[in-house]
Every structure is written in structure tokens, then in C-alpha cells.
Amino acid sequence: MKVFLVGFVSGILSFCCSLAIASPSVGDIAIYVHTDTSQGTPKSDLLQVQLTDYNQNTDVFHMEIVIADLDGSNGWGGDEDIAGSKLLSDTYLRNLLESCASQGGTLAETTVPAGTFQTCEMPVNNDSGVGNVWYGIVPFGIVKSDLTLSGVETTLQLKELGWGK
Fold this sequence. Notes:
alpha+beta; YmcC-like fold; single chain
């Protein structure tokens, strides 16, 4: 399941960010409460995504992903390099919020453990899953998601965030 989750995170970032002109920063961090039904009953854990390095010559960020129990124990991690063009910029997110309805979304105030955010709820129906993603001006752009992929219901809710330099 953990390998699936790392692939899922990369997939959802690639899906949502394919139109972005990136300007994220090293140190950007998002911690989500992740819940899925892969074991038949809902199980929750923490998912942390952080940009730890950037190669300006290639426009590639190094992204670390850590999955742990809700109390922070039993952590497991993975990492990968991701093109800056695959990450959402603040400018892209502002434009998405301003044109949410014309992009096929619904403008909403969305409350998650990290707070209440102005979001654009967008339907998803692709290789990343079927469901909805709520985008807002937060690191990585994802405030919340409710998706089903290969019969597994998966929910992310932003718990904590931090902006890089």
C-alpha cells in the first residue's frame, strides 16, 4: 500500500499540475491526514510531502514523501525528482480560483484540519482516479481530495502546511 500511495501522490501532483508554470520553493511542506479502504475498512495515517532540493539548471525539485501512523510513529519514506513544471505555482492557483466555474469547478470554502481555505472543487476522472480535488493557495495546491482508484477510496485532508524560501 505504501508504494501505491507514493505513486498516487506523484500521479495526483502530475495530473493537477500539468498546466502550471512552476514557482514552488525548497522547504514547501504539506502534511495530510490520509484515509483509505485498501484493507476493507477505513485506515488513516499521515502523509508528508516536502520539497528538499532544487536544481536550477534542470528545473527539477527533489520531493520527499513520508507516511506514518497518526501519532507520527512507524514512518516510511520515499523520494523522487519532479519537474518544476509539474508543480502548481501561486499564480496558477490564483487564476484557477478566479476562473473556477469556467474551468468546470465549483468555488467553495473548504474546512480541513489545517483551517478554512478558499478552494476550487474540481471533478477528476482519469488515471489518478475518479472523484473530486479541492485546490487552494497552499503548498502543492491540494487542500482536500476524495478519489477512488482501482476500487480503493482515498481521502486527503490538509493537516499542516509550511512555505519554503
